[in-house]
Amino acid sequence: MRLLCDSGLGLGGYMRHQVYAAIVYGALLVLAAAGVIWIVASAGIPQRAHPDAPAYALPPPVYKKPEGAVYGLTIRDALDGPGRHGADAMGQYADTIEPPVEPIDAAAGAAPAMQKPEISAGEREMLAKTVWGEAGSCAPEEQALVVWTALNRLDDGRFGATIKAILTAPGQFVGYRAGNPVTDAIMAVVDGAADAYQRGEAAPILPPYAKHGGYLYFSGDRAQKHNWFK
Question: Which one of 57, 62, 106, 123 is CB 3.0 to 4.6 Å from 46, fit for a cystine?
Answer without folding.
Answer: 57
